[in-house]
Amino acid sequence: MSGTCVIGLQWGDEAKGKIVDLLTRDFDIVVRYQGGANAGHTVVVGGEVYKLHHIPSGVLSPGVMNVIGPGVVLNPPVALQEIDSLASRGVQLADNLRISDRLHLVFPWHIAEDKALNASPVGGESIGTTNRGIGPCYRDKYGRSHAIRLGDLYRPDFREKMERIVDFKQLLLAHLGSDELLVAGEIFDEYSGHAARMKPFVADTTNYLLDALESGKRLLFEGAQGSMLDIDHGTFPFVTSSNSSGVGVSAGSGVPARWIKKTIGVCKGYTTRVGGGPFPTELADEIGQRIRDLGHEYGTTTGRPRRCGWFDAVAVRYAARLSGVDSLAIMMLDVLSELSEVKLCVAYELDGQRIEHFPSHTDDLRRVKPVFEVLPGWQQEVRSAGRISDLPAGARRYLDRVAELIGRPVEIVSVGPGREQTIFV
Ligand code: GDP
Ligand code: IMO
Ligand code: MG
């Protein structure tokens, strides 16, 4: 009957996986629709930690269909390994997974190209990608001539098409200084094996989702990355290569906006960012390190330490408007509970002028100075709070102020990684 979206409002890792897993019980289908193995979504169930890169976070709820839509760039060995790893832990994927035959595939040359380009900075700073071949794969998708979609693996001309692409990619990689050697026959054999294993899951998910909506099914869309990493509306060029804000849901899934009835924006009570790019509220000091330690802020996909800083209401307000957010899920409140004071960035100062909008050019964003509001910390354990009224007054004041600054109500507060450590307001 309708679609609900879960979208990150910062630079990724807002704990979207936890929220999707929690909400899944009210839905029939969970859909990943953009990004790829750059994503790392964590779900904690009964103390068991699951790290998902390709498979939707609905997978831990029995009876739910999981769909990987056409806007995702899929790395077959990563997806298959994830399926095997889930199976070894008793989570079976069979009739509960459908993968779009329209989605584009990541090949070894994409990863080699990503690594080679990551080594050469853009304007003095490396993007610091996840090296998962995301940018090169999306580039080939939009370029069309060198793209291979999942459905192509099952066509008689797959080998010929791939050999032609390998010839070109080998030249390109040599020019980029990569020593990657591509052997077409070996890659063909490997991907033919992947194709055989993936066959049971391959489907026309676009029509499947439209049929499902028309027959009254409830869809939950799981965003990857975050709104500030959106290719068109984020902090370009320090972004990912897909529309990772709310505007990407329709294009990536094939579900028109008329079906989307609600969007929940997920953000931490502070900010993190992995990789390069401007970060106005970054704390390159011991408080930043404290937040990193308390929040275990190390990348789910790459293990890199995440850069940490105060909550940036200018960025999140922009993201909430861009992504069409109805309500907020505020995560990691327990991490802030340890601090003696907590700061909120309520505006920026650019060239001596106070601004409240998020600048469109990275050069301007680099020059802004955050204007902070300081709130006293509450320094009280919140991990076992089950209701808003269980929270210390200081924490409630903080949440109220965040809601006021973003202009959206808080619907969910997370006080720990577990399913049960959640307050529904
Ligand atoms: P995602 O990519 O948006 O799904 O987020 P990640 O999984 O990359 O990172 C979120 C991390 O925070 C994971 O390790 C979660 O288990 C953890 N987490 C989620 N909610 C909370 C919370 O409220 N408090 C704490 N301390 N950790 C949380
Ligand atoms: P989830 O879904 C945090 C960042 C990378 C880099 C930039 C481009 O777990 O929130 P890419 O490999 O996409 O070309 O890298 O985007 N990035 C993420 N940061 N969480 C993610 O995913 C990310 N996916 C990409 O660190 O700065
Ligand atoms: Mg993540």
Description:
The chain is an alpha/beta fold and 425 residues long. It has 13 helices and 20 strands. A hairpin with a 7-residue loop joins β19 and β20 (422-424). The chain is globular. It starts with a strand and ends with a strand. The mean pLDDT is 96. Guanosine-5'-diphosphate (GDP) binds at residues 8, 13-18, 40-42, 44, 295, 300, 331-332, 334-335, 414-417. Magnesium ion is lined by residues 12-13, 40-41, 300.
Briefly summarize what is shown.
This protein has 425 residues and is α/β, with parallel strands linked by helices. The chain contains 13 helices and 20 strands. A 10-stranded mixed β-sheet has the order 9-7-5-2-10-1-11-15-19-20, with helices on both faces.
Q: What distinguishing features does this structure have?
A:
425 residues, alpha/beta, ten-stranded mixed beta sheet, four-stranded mixed beta sheet, 20 strands, 21% strand, globular, binds guanosine-5'-diphosphate, binds 6-O-phosphoryl inosine monophosphate, binds magnesium ion
List bound small molecules: guanosine-5'-diphosphate, 6-O-phosphoryl inosine monophosphate, magnesium ion
Largest sheet: 10 strands, mixed
What is the end-to-end distance? 25 Å
The average pLDDT value, as a whole number, equals 96
Identify the strand order in the major beta sheet: 9-7-5-2-10-1-11-15-19-20
Q: Determine the strand fraction and express it as a percent band.
A: 15-25%
Low-confidence stretches: none
Query: What general form does the structure show?
Result: globular
Oligomeric assembly: single chain
Classify the secondary structure makeup into a structural class.
Answer: alpha/beta
Q: How many β strands by DSSP?
A: 20
